[in-house]
Amino acid sequence: xxxxxxxxxxxxxxxxxxxxxxxxxxxxxxxxxxxxxxxxxxxxxxxxxxxxxxxxxxxxxxxxxxxxxxxxxxxxxxxxxxxxxxxxxxxxxxxxxxxxxxxxxxxxxxxxxxxxxxxxxxxxxxxxxxxxxxxxxxxxxxxxxxxxxxxxxxxxxxxxxxxxxxxxxxxxxxxxxxxxxxxxxxxxxxxxxxxxxxxxxxxxxxxxxxxxxxxxxxxxxxxxxxxxxxxxxxxxxxxxxxxxxxxxxxxxxxxxxxxxxxxxxxxxxxxxxxxxxxxxxx
Length: 282
Hints:
The chain crosses the membrane at residues 12-31, 257-276. Keywords: Membrane, Transmembrane, Transmembrane helix. By secondary structure, the chain is of the alpha/beta class. The chain has two domains: 1-30 and 242-282; 34-240, Rossmann fold. The chain contains eleven helices and six strands. It has a six-stranded parallel sheet, sandwiched between helices. Strand 1, helix 4 and strand 2 (86-91) form a beta-alpha-beta unit. The two termini are 17 Å apart.
């Protein structure tokens, strides 16, 4: 028996992976999603802010990392806007403006009670990276004299009192590249600005050191982090775009099923190995 297990045609293994990945997507099954400490820390930071505070959501990513990072933007924006926290959207990535517009299109429909220019603003894209981050610390109006639609920041009510990091309660950089490092180096280290990040699963392990030192107040790591944060937002009743939370929950369940399947294969494979070795030893 164990000899057959050890020599199983790998095509059956691949078929099992396909079934485990497809079933949750077809049945729309969602596993429980408990929040990990880095996610809970970011959620609590925003949840404890008084209404009227301003956060800067820097969507520093492009379409290639959209499946992991876009759900984070949706969840954070809904959490903040539902609590009356003002949100400034910006990006340091060349293709970032398109990502912002995807989110804002749904925000406008889901939040008719929130007005552009009073509750949220799209500052758009600005090249320069370090110069942009440092410039915001001096005067955001000089870095972004106009919003993404050509309106002067002086004519946008919510931006009249926002001049630099002193008026920005939190910066959140969503990225699959090294942009969060730049926010730590130039905004946190230079100006003491509170910074958090949402990173792809590949990049997230690089940022645990920043969490340990308190330089990041919180972090969402990959699809799992997005699903955890969206679930926290749903539990407190702030989810107005539920299809995004449902989709990311289903995707996370699919990923989890495949991981469980692979772990079981490893366990069975090791058991087969030891039984076969013992039989040969006889």
